[in-house]
Structures are given as C-alpha cells and as structure tokens.
User: Fold ABC transporter ATP-binding protein from Pararhizobium antarcticum.
Amino acid sequence: MTLLSVQNLDVRHGLLQAVRDVSFDLSRGDVLALVGANGAGKTTLLRSLAGAHLPAAGRIALNGQDMTKVPSHQRIAMGIALVPEGRRLFSQMTVEENLLLGKTSGRPGDWTIDRVFSAFPNLVARRHAKTGHLSGGEQQATAIGRALMSNPDILLLDEVSLGLSPLVVDRVYAQLQTLLTSGTTIILVEQDLSRAMGVASRVICMLEGRVVLDSPAEQVTRDEVTKAYFGLHRENNERVAS
Ligand code: ATP
Assistant:
C-alpha cells in the first residue's frame, strides 16, 4: 500500500521554480535515494515534503491523507520527520535534551531515548554533553535520533555526509544500517552516488527540478544514474547526446 504519494508537485523560490511537476509514490519500508547535481531541487523537494516550504501546485498525501497545506509541526505529528542539512541542533542543550525535543511534537511509538542510544552507541557517553561540543558524527547521530524520537513513518535525511570525514560517514552509515533493515521508510538526499545506491531500494535522479530517472535500485547501474545526473539519460531527457 502507498505510504507517501507525491503528485505533480511544483515548488518555487519566488520566480524560480526549483521543483517541476514531480510525482512519485513510496511504500512502507522503501529507502529512496534522491540524487542530482547541486541546485537540482533535492533539498527544496525534501523541505516541501516536511512542510517547511509549501508547494505552488500539486498534492502530497501520507497514508491517503492530504497534507499539501499542513504546516510542518503538524506533519511531524502525522509521521514525517526531517533531518535538515546542517543538522540544526540546539548547541547549548545536551544530547538528551535535544532528543527529548523530538518527542514533543511527535507521536507515541517504539522510539525511546534508550532505543536511540542502542542505535547510536557513540552517543551514550555524550548523553549529558552540550551538542555544540560534539564531533560532527555525534551531532549527525543526535540529529537523526531526534527525528526518530517523533516516531515517524518517513524519515527525510538531507545530506547526512555533509562536512564529515569519510571515516565518520562510514560510521554514520553503519549506524543507519540498523534503520535500513528495520523497515523504516527513508528518503535520503546524498551527493555520493555509490553510497546512496549502496543502501537504497529505489533511486530518483533530479535535474533542474524535474525527475529524469526513477528506478528500483537493482535495475539501474551507477553509469545510468550518472548519465541522468548530467542530463544524458536516453529515455527521460530531451537533451540526449547524439
Ligand atoms: P544542493 O545539493 O546544492 O543542496 P539541491 O539539489 O538540494 O542542491 P536546492 O537547494 O533545492 O537544490 O535548490 C534548487 C534551486 O533553488 C537552486 O537553483 C537554488 O539556487 C534555489 N534555491 C534554493 N533555496 C533557495 C532560497 N532560499 N531562495 C532562493 N532560491 C533558492
């Protein structure tokens, strides 16, 4: 059954149309990698799903319920949680306090502080540390944990690797593996194609606001996604080379 349905979504920044006629459906347990070059519209799409940026046209429904115009704090209660680019933690608050904040606008469910600490064991010793004093990897784990505390049906992850060393990114992804195998539905914006395709069940590539490739991950090669990334994808793009 469809969990998330996105139909003909247009999202604007003033005169600039950042997302153009985007449609896709997600089922429970899907892990969607949303890829594309800088400025392709990935973050704008994610923010519009989270309610941080209302679309100019189109429809977003979760579990069959229209939420196109629902404000972001109510979307959290409906089951959508965003881990924004840059993490946006409260740096003067502790890990535990940040995690508890995730509960306030969320809904009841299986995610508790203890479960977050068992998914991200590197946070246990940092429980009472202010997040401003944490390493990048610890901050990212806290941001993901905070989103999970709202017990989302869908977790939106925007560039979890940004600003982290390759070693730390490996660790964050190893921790994400627990989520990926526990049936959590995830939309993952990731610049690193190999990494994204390594964990995703589905890949959508955006170019200049449009979807130029949408495929089950196992039915598409890295080469095909790279072509779509640069606008050379044969089936879906008018600007095909040759
Ligand atoms: P990146 O990987 O660089 O984050 P992206 O695929 O996430 O890129 P967006 O950040 O969604 O792309 O940007 C899509 C388009 O919207 C770009 O042309 C960008 O310049 C523009 N844009 C994004 N945010 C704003 C904003 N707040 N005001 C005006 N234009 C914006």
User: Anything to note?
Assistant: Residues 13, 16, 18, 36, 38-44 surround adenosine-5'-triphosphate (CB under 6 Å). The chain has a mean pLDDT of 87. The chain has eight helices and ten strands.
